[in-house]
């Protein structure tokens, strides 16, 4: 693959004309090597019929170089070899300038469909079923406490289990590590009865102490994590005996049980303390249907855990390979951490199966009215948000005039395009703006309170109510006290409401109130990108809406 990269370097510097006159000094400078090595590289390319090279005698004399191979073909071959050898990172820089041509996109798209998907082979008279999945997000950790990416959550959901789970798309809460549970009349004391003889991947038997450790670890973390508003309301977790756990809440919360269905609430072994959190994130031991046997920058390999308490999975092995296809500077905005087929009909939709259930992404902008500034004026706020409507608007006339300073728009890199669109629209109407894009971790800090407008996103999946609660709780931090008190009051009512439909209505009332008060403006909503697999059997979805690998199977060829 190094030779491929060297060819692409030469082509990017000297390609284009039918032939190039170049000195050996220039080639050595381009390749970053000695004259001798440059000449060796040229000879190897000539042997492969990638180029022709007609040398001229004498130092400094220009020789004739002709490129015979297309850069797209060499880039494709390099990527294919890289993926096959699971050494993708070594090929990325070399093909960076060549991956955006439509011809290469189409060719690699077809090759990906052939390489990834299901593969079967015989080993010691046994059929080994392997599923290869390409992901567009680099995997860093599978520790439920520290993971941030959808692709990480997908893997984690197959390595770990929670006390309870969800029944696919219907949303019904079903037993997990706990085979039964009950709560008291006040709905603050929850008692969970654990299954017996459940094994972790490293051979340890699950006990109530592991559950206690998992929740106390969540409660004590200083990490800013999704849904922390729920586990921070836990008062005590106690093991009543080896198979019974009682969790006491500070106050009733009807979102507590749905939270336990998420991968964030997965149970980890108590002896994680001796392993160390950094090591555990890359070499985890859970109770799930698959165990991690390999983890590198580009590849994660899962093998079936034959002693899984809910039955052995049909697949034997899952290879998850990081393919940053497209090499776009902006991360995906649409909620899919998996390789997405742009036109599944052209690829043969009849031979493809969806890898996740239907969901959508809603983008919106909110106003920071807690900050002393122009947005504390409701009339000015209304005019600013009206600039984002496509319909014509009346010119704004206000005694105070336009803001003297530029409005600051805060967001994260995934939504920078939306923030720039907002800035451009406002500029058309006389409002100066500047966009500040920070990492998701920094975005949780003071940057929002220092800005005038904040661009948010909401993934509308099976955990939508949990996400809405988290969203409005966060949003209330940069809203003036009266409105904040109203939102927090309604959120309190929602958390006490046992009926899911009534909770949905409560969230709708909050949205309508913020919209009427010109605190919130929905930019758009669109379906999340849908990834596909070559056609499989047994497709069901987990609580996050991703395909459940445990039930997938492939009929043998007869």
Average pLDDT across residues?
Answer: 82
Main pleated sheet? 5 strands, mixed
Question: Strand percentage, roughly?
Answer: 15-25%
Please give the radius of gyration in angstroms: 28 Å
The low-pLDDT segments are: 326-337
Task: Provide a descriptive summary of the structure in words.
By secondary structure, the protein is α+β, with helices and mostly antiparallel strands. The protein is 34% helix and 21% strand. The longest helix has 17 residues, at 500-516. It starts with a helix and ends in a 24-residue tail after the last strand. Strand 10 (234-241) and strand 11 (244-249) form a beta hairpin. Mean pLDDT is 82; it is low at 326-337. Helix 1 runs antiparallel to helix 4 (71-84), helix 4 (71-84) runs antiparallel to helix 5 (89-95) and helix 18 (464-475) packs parallel to helix 20 (500-516). The strands form 6 sheets. The protein has a 5-stranded mixed β-sheet with strand order 4-5-14-13-12, with helices on both faces. The protein has a 5-stranded mixed β-sheet with strand order 18-17-19-16-20, sandwiched between helices. Strands 8-9-11-10 form a 4-stranded antiparallel β-sheet, covered by helices on one side. Among the domains are: 1-69, Winged helix-like DNA-binding domain superfamily/Winged helix DNA-binding domain (Arc Repressor Mutant, subunit A, Orthogonal Bundle), CATH 1.10.10.10; 150-297, Dipeptide-binding Protein, domain 1 (Alpha-Beta Complex), CATH 3.90.76.10; 360-392 and 403-527, Dipeptide-binding Protein, Domain 3 (Dipeptide-binding Protein, domain 3).
């Amino acid at each position: 693959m190094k030779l491929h990269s060297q060819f692409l370097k030469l082509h990017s510097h000297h390609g284009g004309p039918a032939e190039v006159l170049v000195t050996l000094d220039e080639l050595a400078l381009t390749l970053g090597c000695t004259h001798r090595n440059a000449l060796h590289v040229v000879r190897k390319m000539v042997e492969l019929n990638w180029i022709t090279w007609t040398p001229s005698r004498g130092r400094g004399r220009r020789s004739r170089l002709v490129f015979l191979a297309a850069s797209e073909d060499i880039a494709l071959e390099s990527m294919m070899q890289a993926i096959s050898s699971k050494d993708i990172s070594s090929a990325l820089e070399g093909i960076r300038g060549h991956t955006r041509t439509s011809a290469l996109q189409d060719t690699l798209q077809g090759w990906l469909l052939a390489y990834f998907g299901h593969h079967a082979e015989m080993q010691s008279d046994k059929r080994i079923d392997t599923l290869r999945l390409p992901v567009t997000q680099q995997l860093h950790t599978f520790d439920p406490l520290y993971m941030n990416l959808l692709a990480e959550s997908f893997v984690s959901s197959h390595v770990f289990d929670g006390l309870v789970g969800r029944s696919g798309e219907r949303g019904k809460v079903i037993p997990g590590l706990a085979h039964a549970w009950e709560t008291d009349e006040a709905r603050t004391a929850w008692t969970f009865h654990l299954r017996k003889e459940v094994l972790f991947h490293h051979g340890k038997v699950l006990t109530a102490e592991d559950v206690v450790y998992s929740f106390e670890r969540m409660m004590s973390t200083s990490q800013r994590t999704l849904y922390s508003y729920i586990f921070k309301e836990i008062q005590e977790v106690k093991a009543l005996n080896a198979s019974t756990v009682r969790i006491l809440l500070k106050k009733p919360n009807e979102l507590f049980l749905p939270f336990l269905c998420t991968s964030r609430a997965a149970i980890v072994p108590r002896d994680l303390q001796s392993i160390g959190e950094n090591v555990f994130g890359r070499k985890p031991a859970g109770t799930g249907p698959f165990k991690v046997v390999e983890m590198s920058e580009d590849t994660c390999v899962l093998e079936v855990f034959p002693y899984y308490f809910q039955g052995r999975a049909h697949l034997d092995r899952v290879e998850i390979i990081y393919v940053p296809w497209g090499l776009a500077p902006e991360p995906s905005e649409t909620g899919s951490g998996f390789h997405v087929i742009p036109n599944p009909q052209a690829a043969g939709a009849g031979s493809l199966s969806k890898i996740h259930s239907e969901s959508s992404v809603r983008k919106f902008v909110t106003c920071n009215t807690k900050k002393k500034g122009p947005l504390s004026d409701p009339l000015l706020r209304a005019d600013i948000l009206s600039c984002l409507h496509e319909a014509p608007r009346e010119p704004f006339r206000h005694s105070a005039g336009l803001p003297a300073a530029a409005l600051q728009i805060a967001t994260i890199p995934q939504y920078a395009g939306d923030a720039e669109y907002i800035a451009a629209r406002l500029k058309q109407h006389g409002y100066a703006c500047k966009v500040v894009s920070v990492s998701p971790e920094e975005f949780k800090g003071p940057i929002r309170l220092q800005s005038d407008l904040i661009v948010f996103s909401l993934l509308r999946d099976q955990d939508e109510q949990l996400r809405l609660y988290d969203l409005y709780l966060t949003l209330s931090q940069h809203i003036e006290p009266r409105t904040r008190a109203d939102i927090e009051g309604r959120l309190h009512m929602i958390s006490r409401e046992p009926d899911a439909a009534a909770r949905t209505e409560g969230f709708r009332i909050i949205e309508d109130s913020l919209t009427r008060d010109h605190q919130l403006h929905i930019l758009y909503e669109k379906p999340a990108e849908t990834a596909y697999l070559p056609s499989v059997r047994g497709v069901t979805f987990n609580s996050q809406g991703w395909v459940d690998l445990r039930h997938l199977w492939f009929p043998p060829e007869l």
